[in-house]
């Protein structure tokens, strides 16, 4: 036999279910909007993988929140690159290799600081453009590391190209968002 809930519980419960059904996540970006946004990027699958599947996207209210996710994902890539640099450090015993590793370690450290600053600045919507410029500084540190492997001695393959490429792609998403926020 079914048990009846008291009336003082039924009304709030009904109201809660109604609100939940009618307004699932207040002001949240819809999945279709995120997919449409990613279609505007240079690499739809990359956008969907790094931005669209980030657990914070479910709470994103607008493009400014997506911008914060892109800053954060950039910092994650930089952190992963720094870990990779530490893993491959022992492979370089010569002076040029050591110099390149130290250069990249320093640059990725600076890039990490820049992306963290961009994230913090981006939390204030009015500073989104300045945050983007700070992130661009981080991108330049990453690119300089990649370029270091092609100069000052024999050309070698960088061990952080994967992360460099990801940061470049994330920055193109950041630039797209900034363009949309300006309009």
Automatic annotation (TrEMBL):
Keywords: Disulfide bond, Signal. One of its GO terms (molecular function) is pectinesterase inhibitor activity. Coiled coil: none annotated. Residues 29-177 form the Pectinesterase inhibitor domain. Residues 1-28 form the signal peptide. It comes from the Eukaryota. Pfam families: PMEI. Transmembrane segments: none annotated. Belongs to the PMEI family. NCBIfam families: PME_inhib. This is Invertase/pectin methylesterase inhibitor domain superfamily. It comes from Arabidopsis suecica.
């Amino acid at each position: 036999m079914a048990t009846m809930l008291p009336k003082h519980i039924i009304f709030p419960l009904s109201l809660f279910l109604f609100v939940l059904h009618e307004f699932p996540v207040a002001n949240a970006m819809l999945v279709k909007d995120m997919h449409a946004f990613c279609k505007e990027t240079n690499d739809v699958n990359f956008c969907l993988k790094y931005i669209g599947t980030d657990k914070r996207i479910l709470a994103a209210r607008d493009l400014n929140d997506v911008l914060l996710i892109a800053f954060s994902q950039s910092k994650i890539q930089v952190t992963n690159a720094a870990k990779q640099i530490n893993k491959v450090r022992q492979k370089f015993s010569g002076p040029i290799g050591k110099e390149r590793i130290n250069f990249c370690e320093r640059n990725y450290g600076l890039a990490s600081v820049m992306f963290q600053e961009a994230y913090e600045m981006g939390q204030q919507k009015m500073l989104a453009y300045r945050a983007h410029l700070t992130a661009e500084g981080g991108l330049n540190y990453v690119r300089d590391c990649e370029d270091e492997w092609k100069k000052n001695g024999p050309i070698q393959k960088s061990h952080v190209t994967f992360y460099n490429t990801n940061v470049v792609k994330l920055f193109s998403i950041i630039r797209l968002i900034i363009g949309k926020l300006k309009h």
